[in-house]
């Protein structure tokens, strides 16, 4: 399909969106400051633009079109109602610097959302400011650093993470100026507690952990881990990536965590939009309260207002120009109000039920489980190593072939500990019938791989393009349109 | 003979007792079949690896009972009605512009809206191509060669640009070993941007130096700069327009920094670039990095977000770029297609050594921007920018006629924002004008020392001559009331 | 040194002078190339077959200059703000219900919204399947076998049902040759429906006879019917609920009509059918045709439209059906697919002998209804209907406590609408309650002779206990004010 | 793709849209009146419904996705802005029977729309009540009848239409109780004026005509035709189906018509929605004013109000329960405000330019024009008769093959006068590049038909289903889902 620039024609003036100033008059821009070169924007009609982007959209899988069992990403149904509510004119027209008195409606939603996230995480205070999970992590680690600094406990230069952690964990620790050390994992998927004991010490600023872990299992020794780190003077950071598995059943605060971020596009059903925007609210225990990023919404009598940095001098500061990704937070708020107190626990129940069911069925269909002795949480891992060894068909090939069967692919090659792995997360919003179809597809592909491996290795065959040359993309980067 | 209305409640009862739930499709029959397949007695059993002593199913005092979509929609309509800035003249980093209706109609389509990051390229060509087109547009607007696929917002984009510049142009070792990297970020840069940049860079040994601005032009002064050039610095940030709406002398500043071995980071309003010289053409060599707030390109005000940050740079800096980048390539049948590329910079590969920890960015907002810019085209964007500028001047003419009102920076060249000097506390004036349904601007007292009587006023293409008349009349009345009191 | 702002106007000028236009993509270059290919000197030449004496390019005093989308959106937002019924208790054929947000999000997708009638079935499977599913749902709700793909609205659906019944069951020739066809349409049927039916059937020799209703039950009375049964009639119309919100004795009426050789046309509220016995099960044999207003199934009030009419019937009447019908078939590879079928009934084939002149129907609204009903499901629709009924009773309990207020039809069985008897002119009460932001109902004085003090009040699931309290308080105050005056 | 009922599972309760009454209490419905049998509605989750209908939509061509050169249907761009404006909450919440004082905003739009349509058609009065073109026709013919009846001119029992007319014309005349007689067409596509002269008389109630005609040419003798019919005491009805070709250039009123309907989904860019809703406002000359269908919006001072039947006793009555398809009319209003006085004439200019260009290019590519001597209006006809004779490939086959090339097909086999015809209407909103691509596709198909006729005869090959068996559909009607 041609790119929009190839549909452009110089001199086409088909825009409805031309505007003239309210009145004519002398302008005040010196000619020397004016742009002389073309901006290169496409010149197309409204119909051309609408048709182009409508057609592009059709070349994309989303939850609204396909089962999307992308492990670690919690691709559950994104309620359309939440979208419509967040797009109500009053919310869209709200200027972030207008007086709080004009924005009581949106502030009320944000205040209540802080409370609900506090409830779910077992934390004493919440800031909605971080604009994505990774920024939430940054805020969390920065608060841990601010805590140690405030106590003049300056020798703590290390952050520990499990070797199976999301890449954002070590990357964040780095951005906060810490050295990262990785803790090994046992063959049952747990943190190696003995190794941990060896690694902690006066140099330990904290531990970053997600529980359930990225291996799709619940970290059973969490209380012990927490005690070890705390005893060494470190803090515990909870990566909320997998909160959907336990929301309403067990709270990070009760596991001993000092600090939590949540990904609203996972547990709270906000859309991922092909890469964002998300939001990564952070919750903290009492001792980190002074360091929360700003702003925070507070209630005084019947009035809501934004609290800014000058009111919380220990704050790690601002994460964004204004107050964060409000539109996304409103969607999360709407979702939580729609499912309510009863519902949020059922989410974890059925997400776990679906994962365990799918795991059992795939095991029965001959797939190798990474942790056959363990319960699945809301996700689980299979390894295609035996298949690869036998046929040369890799996890990547199977993933691509799934696209032909009308499924988005699970996460592959993450976590890196399990060879040829697929991390599969069905979420609670998929029906049993859909899971059964997915099992059928994987089973059929297994058969294909044995009988006709080439078919699978050259997949996908039914998508708008066949397998793309990523090596060439990196070697000869073609990153922008050029008329040359 | 009559049934009781309680009969009608059985659904509600079902929800409470039997486990039905809005977004969960399972029947009781499903539950049974699935537990059988798993070999578990009940759902509770699936959680048996969680130690009992830490489990908690209650204690959620802030979590209310579920509402139906109908009830919640009504509540949210009420709340939306209690939000919004009225006739709005506040800018200061978030600007009210017309967004063509088609933009969100298309961006909201399920295929874009509910997709994840396009890891499986073949099933994500729509998103990938849209992002690539977005990258191309940002390169065009800034006259630079490489764009990433977005950052969170304008302030974090500036912070990432600073980190990037320091990586690309680190301080030389001094006689006593490592020296901190210094970056000059004039006080005419948006204060919140400076706060965010400080919060995001402070752990990496970077010192942000803030040269003062000129009291007449409201723009960076050479005097201010010369005072801080005693030590080497990695980069200079040049805002356009700056926090006060003023236009900096970008050519002189760029050349000044380059001469001193520093990189130039342009922090720009993308809409203004439809009228103003793009960063790639500043001075003799052009800026090295451009970044900014993408909000004017299709994002509604939305109380501050979601917006998006953009970041473009020279080809040679591409591998220092944080965040995702989409590249064009071919499939095995030589058809063109798009993939995420140069991923070796990113956290999921590089982990602790990544260029940034960013993962989720503002993907959908780049689709919004691509559609928005396609619908406007070069002339649409230019006409909107021109109308903003023309309207600012039209308002200036009106308010300058009011006794006691003048420009705070008498020699400022402004794009679509200006600072008014009022004969009294600006916050009080704003409060009075709020009574007329007008958000009159941002009183600068709490933002900049000594500017209690200063009001930052923004005018965009959305305002009509009548709106401007209404503003002038309300301002006059607000000041007059003081005089009369 | 300064450019003049007029420079920025060049686009606007271009529009006026050079022919640019919002929805026309042609450049001046295109124009030249195309005229060359045609062999015409200018566009004017393309119109040279139009006699000069009848051409007119001006004289359009009511046609204003173009507005930008921005300007028009602002105007329309103002106008929308000057529309709407406040807290609304008016029904009378158009009902305020909750519509799940997903309904219009999907129905508004370009592929549905901008398609034409699915003449090319292979490129229209989405629309065709959705309509077929809609047909299936309407058959299910009415318990009849065949549905068409929609008519304009409830009133025209009734008119078409009458024409259809007369075609299927024409009058026998009398001693003096042709006799006019008679159809009984009780006075408890919505007055506007009767007007539309009259307007649409009067040229085909059909006589509509309107038996009176019972003063106690507000429903068709056997007395009234017996008075008009002296001559044979082709069909009897039975409304459920009727104009007054009352439930007719459908079993008795159906059997009465069938016994007299007439067909039975059920004119029903589809939401009520979630609770009430469906037409196909009325009496011993069931109604023959069902029709009604589809608005409660996903159409917003929208000042009266677009809604849609539905029409279902027994299998044997299928070929008398007006309008489009979708059927399921297979393609050449035996895959299931959908096509427009039984087209021999329609105007584009049968021309003057077609079952109706209808061509464009309300296609998109049937997609809306299919999505709406899928999202609600049987229990969602039932719970909404139950809530309507429960809320009506809850309001009745409140207003009956007010001095002087009673039910106009003391023995009426109501679904979600009732007629109140007030101690004064209902129109005046409504006017007073309007001052409180309440649309209190429809005063029946202008609609039915002798019912000046009658108020038709509707309550749907959208109302809360607080709303009902507010209504009762406002009604009480409106009446009290009279007493005090 | 499965139908929604096949995704249903008994007992699934996944709706967000359950509602309970405000309070409990005694119900008043006798058990004997209650429904006992199931309604058969599907029981699916919100995600299932959203995914199902989203996927269905992707199986549909619309203007937003494809060039749609469907002759006689004017498939031009439907502005998204008009959609958004018509869907503003105030408009959606407006109850049709609420007091006019509450609805001044919507009434103002409707009043102005009446005026604009009056301007464009040259008519003295306009009613927006008819809900589609065919209903507009009904209103028009009913007004003609009412006019004759009011004058006690009761012998007029015939309506004349050209033999090329839309089927709705004769069907409508029939519904109004008239006998229809068809006037022959000359080989240049004009009404046979000599035949007309023979056919008119005291029995003539009127003539229904569309101009430009359905043959894609302008009826040059319109003034003479009008004089003939009027002289015989008949009235002239204008079918506005083809108004897009002449809007702002020549008005039906100036051609001598007494009555006009317009299709807003054609000339005024409202969406067709896969079959409607449309709207068919009618305009009339002075003498038919008393008979306009109700309601009509009138202005008194600064107030707008609806005029009802009792104020216009000669009215033919009501066309709908309320006031017509208001939401559609608001879209038409928005469109007209966006294009404005200058724009509406340019619409006709460029629609005509596109048609003549496409006709010239297809002629050059070897296609046979139905009326090679005539100018195209906004549409034109080609005949594939030579191809059919040579290869057996019919117009239907070429139409189906066009779908494979990514185009919706032109209208085929209408008008019936031209064998194996295609009626092609590009509209003004398509670009020259798109027209060129369409020419390329038709040219390629021509080649295919000669070299490999089977390929074309079995088309389409790239659509979700291949050619469907319409005969079977009619012989064994399968019109609704049954669980049997």
From TrEMBL, chains A, D:
The glycine cleavage system is composed of four proteins: P, T, L and H. In this organism, the P 'protein' is a heterodimer of two subunits. GO terms for cellular component: cytosol; glycine cleavage complex. The modification N6-(pyridoxal phosphate)lysine is found at residue 266. Its cofactor is pyridoxal 5'-phosphate. Belongs to the GcvP family. C-terminal subunit subfamily. The glycine cleavage system catalyzes the degradation of glycine. The P protein binds the alpha-amino group of glycine through its pyridoxal phosphate cofactor; CO(2) is released and the remaining methylamine moiety is then transferred to the lipoamide cofactor of the H protein. It holds the Pfam family GDC-P. It comes from the Bacteria. Residues 349-451 form the Glycine dehydrogenase C-terminal domain. It catalyses: N(6)-[(R)-lipoyl]-L-lysyl-[glycine-cleavage complex H protein] + glycine + H(+) = N(6)-[(R)-S(8)-aminomethyldihydrolipoyl]-L-lysyl-[glycine-cleavage complex H protein] + CO2. SUPFAM superfamilies: PLP-dependent transferases. Residues 467-478 have a biased composition (Basic and acidic residues). It is an enzyme of class 1 (oxidoreductase). The keyword Transport does not apply. Its EC number is 1.4.4.2. Gene3D superfamilies: 6.20.440.10, Aspartate Aminotransferase, domain 1, Type I PLP-dependent aspartate aminotransferase-like (Major domain). GO terms for biological process: glycine decarboxylation via glycine cleavage system. One of its GO terms (molecular function) is pyridoxal phosphate binding. This is Probable glycine dehydrogenase (decarboxylating) subunit 2. Residues 453-484 are annotated as: Disordered. Residues 27-294 form the Glycine cleavage system P-protein N-terminal domain.
TrEMBL record, chains B, C:
It comes from the Bacteria. One of its GO terms (molecular function) is glycine dehydrogenase (decarboxylating) activity. Residues 23-470 form the Glycine cleavage system P-protein N-terminal domain. The glycine cleavage system catalyzes the degradation of glycine. The P protein binds the alpha-amino group of glycine through its pyridoxal phosphate cofactor; CO(2) is released and the remaining methylamine moiety is then transferred to the lipoamide cofactor of the H protein. One of its GO terms (biological process) is glycine decarboxylation via glycine cleavage system. This is Probable glycine dehydrogenase (decarboxylating) subunit 1. It comes from Magnetofaba australis IT-1. It is an enzyme of class 1 (oxidoreductase). It holds the Pfam family GDC-P. InterPro entries: GcvPA, GDC-P_N, GDC_P, PyrdxlP-dep_Trfase, PyrdxlP-dep_Trfase_major, PyrdxlP-dep_Trfase_small. Keywords: Oxidoreductase. Belongs to the GcvP family. N-terminal subunit subfamily. Its EC number is 1.4.4.2. It catalyses: N(6)-[(R)-lipoyl]-L-lysyl-[glycine-cleavage complex H protein] + glycine + H(+) = N(6)-[(R)-S(8)-aminomethyldihydrolipoyl]-L-lysyl-[glycine-cleavage complex H protein] + CO2. The lineage of its organism: Bacteria, Pseudomonadati, Pseudomonadota, Magnetococcia, Magnetococcales. The glycine cleavage system is composed of four proteins: P, T, L and H. In this organism, the P 'protein' is a heterodimer of two subunits.
